[in-house]
């Protein structure tokens, strides 16, 4: 279905969600450019987005038709879609009949479109009768979801990207936007270039590219973020740099936070964080003197066994200073994936309900189940990401349906995940290419349409909802993910899945949000196509969207106040280092790769930046181990080991090493596979894994 028309769509990589113009010429050659009319990126694209045309055009490795194993030891064989749905429905029905609905689960992705997310959630919670649907977004932002809910009453990013150009102080914690949210960072960098008085504080155990533009880099010891934020809070209180009128009128629980902030003196806090006390004072001075203050954070805070404590202690700083609900101010969680926000809207997690309703609330559950017309929705959360794979290993979960994600590489403690997938009675993998290591475990492999090959919507980090049109036909027999799900639901015999297109699914989702905080009942494909993107809520058909939340200083809590939360702990609870494992491994992203490289790994241009995994190590730690630049090292944790080339510098703290998370089993020898090492401890509330902290030892590789 190629045409000469220029199509407006959205980048399929990160949560910045840049607008892209797509052209397809008569020969079918695809070209992409930044959309200068799109408010989020104003025409800019980063290296990943700029090379999306290569990914869209490359059909090598694509799954072209359904493939099925007739039994575990047989190879996958081509089958028809009808046969695939018949088998999937038969196996799911039989397992559910024997072991109950909680014996099956769905593991999906922040790259799914909102309609796909909505349908899987509806099918699982509303019809199968289990809350066992979770997502790889659990791995990146569930601590932020809990932090926002506890503080603001709802999972709600209060600000817009346009606030960046209005702020005069930024605290960027546990994030490297220069590499991981490049266009957002470019907006910040330009703002700073034009307004040198703007202050940027970066909190990170590594000196990353983002630090190049910072006025202050707080290179804290891993796991000491809560101590740092509490110390800044204490200094703000002592120096009377807090907004007492705002605190009195619009917040609750201030005294508890004040008490906790005073647990340590500034000197004690600085010592524990491993930074000069003057730097804490300086950070508090910048924040306290700011007219408009924005905090930004992502995985460095979220991916922790104390992720919620880190989030609430940072959110407290915005409340203390009254920096929320006004232009240029607010706490801004940067989402990792392109539609992590959309997934949250439809309740696409084991602990959430659709339309930001509350799973623990019986009236909310009834509203949603009545709307869907299926069965009763269970009150208890289902298995979260790591719990799902634990449940497979323990035999409690028998079948898992994996959509658009590669847990064999992306989950912590990947050897355990592999064991779980081998142990499962039935594994369905629905994806675009064989490039994903997880397809090797599939009993049923379903070909899905990719970017440009299907229609739907996504929501970016600033709550901006956009329409993504179908531009080209999918190869072979691949189908849109939404259609795969509704046809499976039909094969299961469920009513309420007789959709003709994704627009009908979207209308249903919008209607369900009516009267909620995220009300988008004023939206439709027609409006999104004709009028462009909208920021939720959009509660009626002429509403123009909401760039900023809480401008009336009324929050989504029952008492309409923002709630201070004393963090549950000051101290890190990650696994201990000892003589055998004395170093702390931090994992993260590099500029030109995305997740497990199933797409970016195929683009030659992107491989020129960093072509292979590397271990970043402080030169002092390396010297003590007789390791030199470029040596191959063995990195060993309590769960596994990898070999990887060493890169030395002084930008990373002593006793800390860093491995990118993108690489899986390359060269068949676990070369640089970070998640062989990471541990699957999770935050007790958000259930987000502790990817940023595990105990390791590094030795020089010696050939036997
Ligand atoms: Fe795509 Fe993110 Fe780059 Fe924008 S910043 S082009 S959304 S990867």
From TrEMBL:
One GO cellular component term noted in the UniProt record for this chain: membrane
Cofactor(s) required for function per UniProt: [4Fe-4S] cluster; Mo-bis(molybdopterin guanine dinucleotide); FAD
Keyword vocabulary terms for this entry: 4Fe-4S, FAD, Flavoprotein, Iron, Iron-sulfur, Metal-binding, Molybdenum, Nitrate assimilation, Oxidoreductase
Domain 4Fe-4S Mo/W bis-MGD-type, chain residue ranges per copy: 4-60
GO molecular function: 4 iron, 4 sulfur cluster binding; metal ion binding; molybdopterin cofactor binding; oxidoreductase activity
GO BP terms: cellular respiration; nitrate assimilation
The family this protein is said to belong to: Belongs to the prokaryotic molybdopterin-containing oxidoreductase family. NasA/NapA/NarB subfamily.
Entry protein name: Ferredoxin-nitrate reductase
Native source organism of the sequence: Maribacter spongiicola
Taxonomic placement: Bacteria, Pseudomonadati, Bacteroidota, Flavobacteriia, Flavobacteriales
